[in-house]
Amino acid sequence: MADLTTTISESVVLNGSVRGGINTVTTTGINNAYERIVTCSADQTTHLATFNSNSFGSAVQLDKEDVRYIRVTNLDPTNTLELAVIGASTLYQVLLKAGQSHILCAAIYVMLAEADTSPSFGAMADLASIQVKPAATLDVEIFVASV
Fold it and tell me: What distance lies between CA 33 and its chain's CA centroid?
């Protein structure tokens, strides 16, 4: 077992004053790490990972109950990509600009997608998969830590 230490740092100087912060989180009991860099073809959907109640269903399937941290990073220096976070019956998408990451804290009870502009703050759903679709061929990194 190991500890996963995650640090997010922002720093900007505005009018001579430093703004931003450093936030560090330690997640204990990590037994597994899934790390992969994938070359994703332009205008094609690439499945980075799938999540289920076991880890033996496919080559990129992870046990959703055990996941404690997920990071997807666009490694390209100039191009963007669309990231889809997919649940059992809904999904949400975000744009990742060059070098940017999207982080999730788990794979169960972690997402809620809605078709309106009034948040319900309702029951969260489990992840089913993470997929990307870039406009240009580029590399994407996925890192998942689990117990």
Answer: 14
